[in-house]
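Because discrete structure vocabularies remain unfamiliar, we first show an illustrative case, written as a sequence plus integers encoding its fold.
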Amino acid sequence: MESGPNTKQRLTLTLMGCAILPAAVVFMVTGDAPQTLLLTLVGLGLSFAFPRPLERSVRSFVYTGLGAVVAAVVSDQALPVEGRRFFLLPAELYCPMVLYLAVALTFFDQRESNVAAVIGLALVAMMMAGNVLGFQIAHERLPLKQEAERYLHAFYATAVVLQLGACLLLLPRAPFLIPLRDRLRRRQLGRLLATGMFLAVGSAATVAVMGTAEELETLWQTGFVRLMQRYMLRHGRHVVFGRDVDLWRTVPHHAAEDERVALRALAEAAPGYLRGRVYRTYNQGRWTAANRSAGLNGETPGGQLAYTTFQRPEGWSTAPPAPGAQAARIEVLPAADFRSDVLLAPGRAATFELIAESLAHSPDGELTPNDWEDRVGYAMGVPEHTPDSPFPGPPVDAATVDDYLGIPSDLREPLRQLGQGIFGGQDPPTDTAAAVPALARFFQENCRYELGVTWNRRLGDPVLQFLTGTQTGHCELFASAAVLLLRSRGIPARYVTGMVCHENLGREYWLARLRDCHAWAEAYDAESNAWTLVEMTPADGIPHTAPRLNPFQRARDRLAFAWQHVMALLKRGTFAEAIVAALRALLLLLRWVVLNPVGAPMLLLLLFWALHRRRARRRALDADGQSLPAARATLQRAFHRLVQSLRHRLPGLDPHPTTGQVLEALRKTAPTAAETLGPALARYETLRFGPLLPQNSAARDLAQQLRDLGRKAGRAAIRGGNEPGDPAA
């Protein structure tokens, strides 16, 4: 059994701290969380201040572990860490907790199990702290700039080497610190030499790998990330329009999973372009959405209605009505495996009905619900709807124009030179009405749509590689290039992501699939004082309207939509509409059954099976209406079949006779058969109504005997009635 000393060795405790602190430092940098390093240092300092270890007991372990968890929770509530910095694992929650647990173990004695636990927790914390690809979000608590991202690999590798060195020294619990006998000194020296050699080789390997860090990162992105995407697609895909768009990633080719339905809509005309996120800031291949939003006024109708109606403020639309636009009402129901933190809505949607605590509205038209029941969906009122309507606000003036003209300094000159060839030799600004057609001609003549394109970080910005290199990319590259080129000519523009809902299931039913996620641009026309939608993606890259379902699949999907719609209406409290929708769904089902050559026979078989089951259950009930055990139900069914086989041969038999009545009627026509059947019916009385529950095998044997004797008794009754000279007459 392990035993620990009554005092903690200072040098062993120092090595524990050296194993824990590198992970805390890395998390401080990657998570912008100096408070985590501070609490770790405070905990290690307290452990040094108390040389006597805590007593090992269930209570002490529970209290120290609970203290570590409380410290992690309080720290996250006071100074929360942005979860979007990490991927694959919620390191912003678990990494501090693991670090504090490792610190808590240093308060106990230094036996082998405690030291091994500290080493394991420190390694896990280091793994979670490095669970980032770069500084995607600016640091607010630490004075670090995004340019420091280039040193992230070297910094992390150095921290890993330091931690591994401390862990190697901890593995034997540092026995060389204790005075050794002469015969053990030579063995201990060998351990020290092996440890030093390992550290030297590890350091040299780290320096060698640093030169190829960017290539390794590209392999990571195109390999493991793609593998995780496929895994998530197989196990329920969740599409989230995040606040950041990374153009460095490789968008894979369409697969079978992309055909899954993301949302369904109920509208008289095609919903068209449904806006999700809007991005203004571009830097180093990433778009970042603005974080400014204000809550919309909400009104609860009251009564049995459970939803809230949110209204955009009056005067929010500064653009004149679009030609041919009509008012519309659109109901959207997201699929079970589709998730979006923002509402997908047409640009001119004005009212929103949903079950949510609140609804925030940004100046660029983003709609972010809080505590939203997404499975219930939402309904929108659109005063003037066209399938490609942009968001009409905000008006661009001297105070806001810079928000839509930002271009990274390293892209200004290359974009200016490209713009001279695309828009002509005129100096900016150029009016939007002339710039957009010129830009469309450039993309149509020089660029083509393709998925699976990869980008080399050493060759510069991905948009610049797209425009000057391969000129091949997906919709995000076309939209990004359009926004930056328009901005280079002094035209305000913004980057928009969302979905295109054009596929029709019949009449007012529409749907959008995962492959219908799309990106486009919106540009501001100063002459008309209005925003316009700018679509530069080639036609083969825009979600198309061709039907992708056969008639059977269309009917099945419409039934699924009708059922989801009825459930959503019930949750919203609109019971009258739910009843109407349910009747429409029932009519749709009946129509499908009548027109489908497979559905009608299946329904008839189902009805026949249900009736058969009902009759069997009714026969398996006793006089009080209670369900019988299986053995006695078998006996009752056998007696019921016996009565049915003799009824037409024994006139005057009661509709529900007892065994005595059956024997009395049978003695009048076939006394010999009555004598043969009598013992079996007596046994039936004993097993069916006796105090002991019969065995299933005995019940089956008696049921088979009753069937055989019933057929013989029926034949004897027929002979007794037709042949007067028969002794049985």
